[in-house]
Design brief:
The protein has helices at 7-14, 25-35, 43-46, 88-99, 141-147, 176-182, 201-216, 218-224, 228-249, 262-282, 293-303, 306-309, 314-319, 332-335, 342-345, 373-376, and strands at residues 79-83, 107-110, 159-162, 167-170. By secondary structure, it is mainly alpha-helical. It has a four-stranded mixed β-sheet. α4 (88-99) links the parallel β1 (79-83) and β2 (107-110). It is globular. The two termini are 37 Å apart.
Length: 419
């Protein structure tokens, strides 16, 4: 996390998603012709419904990790996560991987825009020769074409690629972290944290599938929609949900109690972007994250955990694609936010530890004594957010994100315990 003294150089070289110097649209077009990659489809042209609402495309590669036919077998050194600094979905598996001690098992590489205008989607603008060094690919979409030559949608981050076969195996951010947690358990250290406890997976899945339309995708619903009706709907959903989670976190250190779970990672990657980046795309905001005392303190506690901080790149989020600092009416983020020392601003005062009943102050749940790898295995549920039916993916329909109890209430209060 750089401070203000180096920001001009930092802005020029490492803006979130920006291509490296010299990666022109002409070069991107040349590479695309060479490998047969078509232009990237546009969300605002292809994923808008008749009401002007943004309805995100389903994920195309949802094969499960495992030993069965059509599944991708957990194996050290076989896979690479493709992700982007600014993309909240793609930060999640990297954070989980690092928490679980899988850094030497699963590789990762960050993508950039392709050329000046990103006409061909995710590329490798900051790599030598503008290629992925492990596979030689120019574009993320190449892995999609190899896996399915008929694929016509957007290549998205995160994507897990089999780097031996050079094929995409999974881009399902709804369940990707769960595969790392469960199916890669045998490759984790024995004492790795338990982010997805067997007994309560149905509760966590239900909450995560509610969190997706109301919070995680809330920014995009506001940023991509094309009608006032759709905007107001997304706006109300997002802020009503934050009100509920603010109440929940007034009594719980983390979303499900004393320990960080898969859900906390999903919530963090959105809220850490709201005051720094997302607000620029959504118009007038009702509240900043900093205006929610419990959510803000919770965010700061998580930010100070290395796996979270190392994946955040806060100044890159602030600067986006940059701008002229000396221009009249220059962007607030370029003029002011770029000078903020976020490590200092987001320092954790430790106050939320008082909400925990763990006698050792542990922030992670540990696997029960005697639990085997086989005990930890379970069938990962299918997310209806990947269904082909538009109706099943309509974020405004309450039936698509039901909760047994209101989101303001932790249904696992006192149930997650270290033995």
């Amino acid at each position: 996390m750089g401070n203000a003294c180096s920001l001009e150089e930092h802005r020029k070289k490492t803006q979130a998603g920006a291509p490296a110097d010299g990666y022109t649209d002409e070069l991107a077009a040349k590479f695309a012709e060479e490998v047969g990659v078509p232009p990237r489809p546009s969300e605002v042209k292809n994923e808008i419904d008749e009401r002007g609402a943004f309805v995100r495309q389903p994920n195309a590669f949802i094969a499960k990790a495992g030993e069965g036919e059509g599944e991708w077998k957990p194996e050290a050194g076989r896979y690479q996560i493709y992700w982007m600094k600014g993309c909240n979905w793609s930060n999640r598996p990297v954070i989980v991987r690092d928490i679980l001690g899988l850094t030497d098992v699963i590789y990762d590489i960050r993508t950039s825009h392709s050329g000046e205008t990103n006409r061909y989607g995710h590329g490798f603008g900051d790599q030598e020769g503008f290629k992925d060094p492990r596979t030689g690919a120019y574009f993320l979409s190449e892995f999609y074409q190899r896996a399915n030559p008929d694929f016509k949608g957007r290549a998205t981050t995160p994507t897990i690629v089999d780097i031996k076969e050079k094929k995409a195996v999974n881009n399902d951010y709804h369940r990707m972290t769960n595969y790392l947690e469960v199916n890669f358990r045998a490759l984790q250290p024995e004492d790795a944290p338990d982010l997805y406890p067997v007994k309560y997976r149905d509760v966590i899945d239900e909450f995560n599938d509610w969190l997706f339309p109301h919070v995680n995708n809330g920014h995009y619903r506001m940023a991509f929609c094309q009608s006032v009706e759709a905007y107001d709907e997304a706006f109300d959903d997002f802020y009503d949900s934050l009100d509920k989670l603010e109440k929940r976190l007034s009594e719980n250190r983390f979303l499900f109690g004393d320990y960080i779970t898969d859900s906390d990672i999903r919530f963090f990657v959105t809220i850490v972007r709201w005051d720094t980046s997302y607000f620029r795309n959504v118009g007038p905001t009702k509240h900043r994250i900093a205006d929610y005392p419990n959510i803000y303190a919770y965010m700061k506690e998580l930010y100070n955990i290395p796996a979270f901080k190392n994946a955040t790149f806060v100044h890159d989020l602030v600067l986006g694609r940059g701008g002229d600092r000396d221009a009249l009416f220059a962007d607030y983020n370029v003029r002011i936010s770029s000078q903020i020392d976020y490590d200092k601003l987001w320092a954790d005062d430790g106050s939320r530890a008082a909400l925990s009943s763990d006698p050792n102050g542990d922030i992670y749940l540990r696997h029960p004594k005697g639990e085997t790898v086989e005990d930890y295995q379970s069938e990962i549920s299918v997310s209806h957010w990947n269904f082909e039916s538009h109706a099943d993916r309509d974020p405004s329909d309450p039936k698509n994100s039901p909760l047994r109890v209101d989101a303001s209430i932790n249904p696992l209060k006192g149930l997650l315990k270290n033995e």
